[in-house]
Specification:
With 191 residues, the chain is of the alpha/beta class. Helix content is 48%, strand content 15%. The chain is globular and about 55 Å long.
Length: 191
């Protein structure tokens, strides 16, 4: 499954009727084992950042570059961080839901001063064999802009290739294509 397809499923689950969404997810899960991918996986990427509902960006990275890449995991407000942990059942249901929200991986504006987010990102990098990270940020989202400085510094200490991208309303395809391909080149023995 590509990152763009996973994004579609995540966004559908957030807006669809729960029963319909669960049925659709079950159908997708049943088909995945037999599915043959008609593309090379390439570099395994992680997206870290703010809300990502931008399928055009995901498709650009996975389908329109000269170098193959697949987004294998994300740490975004609308992705894995939103859905990561389950509600632990208990008698006080409201408390159970509250604990789920309080214990989920934090958003940058709630991650001060403890910095609990980086260990979570590192765990995802290891679990999903991530080879490079794209720090995805919407313009004027100050919590992520500030946090990305820290995350980029920590990734560089680990020799993890990373690229910071800041988005406005439109995606400058040519510029993004060039920047992402340049980062992908750092993960390969091209020269």
């Amino acid at each position: 499954m590509t990152g763009a397809e996973a994004l579609d499923l995540a966004l559908c689950a957030q807006i669809m009727d729960r029963a319909e969404s669960n049925k659709m997810m079950q159908e997708v899960l049943e088909k995945l084992p037999d599915r043959k991918m008609d593309r090379e996986t390439g570099t395994r990427l992680m997206i870290v950042g703010s809300v990502n509902t931008d399928r055009e960006f995901m498709k650009l990275v996975e389908e329109e570059l000269d170098l193959p890449a697949t987004i294998v995991i994300d740490d975004t407000c609308s992705g894995i961080r939103y859905n990561f942990n389950d509600v632990t059942p208990q008698e006080d249901r409201l408390m159970a839901i509250s604990l789920r929200y309080n214990n989920r991986p934090p958003c940058p504006n709630k991650d001060w001063p403890k910095r609990r987010r980086m260990p979570f990102i590192n765990r995802l990098i290891k679990t999903y064999n991530v080879e490079a990270v794209i720090l995805y940020n919407h313009k004027f989202c100050q919590p992520h802009q500030i946090d990305n400085n820290y995350i980029e510094e920590k990734l560089m200490e680990q020799d993890m290739p990373c690229l910071r991208l800041e988005f406005d309303i439109r995606i400058p395809k040519g510029q993004i294509r060039t920047r992402v391909e340049a980062m992908l080149e750092t993960t390969m023995d091209i020269i």
